[in-house]
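Data follows
____________
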Amino acid sequence: MGKHRSSTGMDFGVRVAAVIERGGSLLLVRHQKPDRDPYWVLPGGRLEPGETIPECATREVAEETGLDARFSGILYVGEFLREGRHTVDVTARMAADGKSEAALGNDPEVEPGSEPTLRELRWVSVEELAGIGLLPVQLKERLLEDASGGWAAGEIYLGGGRR
């Protein structure tokens, strides 16, 4: 999905990220975009119009990591605000099927023939996570805080489904 501009000219979107854990490590992806330092994030991306949060998380995990994963709840909701941009960040807990190995995927929003933005995929232990520049910073802090509980999802997602 392209960026959505509201009538105020502000870029507004919902980003859904996925916490996928294996043996106490989290799956992260490293991005490199033009005119920006590389950065690490949880696999994820923008929610498409008409798509539910679980559908978005499943699609983004498949696109970026090649894994089949099922939605098991919402961990966190946050916001990013700066001049001209407002993003609502939803972090979902996903369970990988365990039958396949993660492999670096792609970002379908990148123009054909352009340099890919996804550069690396890595399982990161909690100890390693402390030293990695994961964005957003508040999410990294919360992931470190909640690591001992295994990033268990609460029952806060009420669905909404299709009407």
User: Anything to note?
Assistant: The beta strands are 4-5, 11-22, 25-31, 39-41, 44-46, 69-82, 85-96, 118-125. The domain at 7-101+118-149 is CATH 3.90.79.10 (Nucleoside Triphosphate Pyrophosphohydrolase).
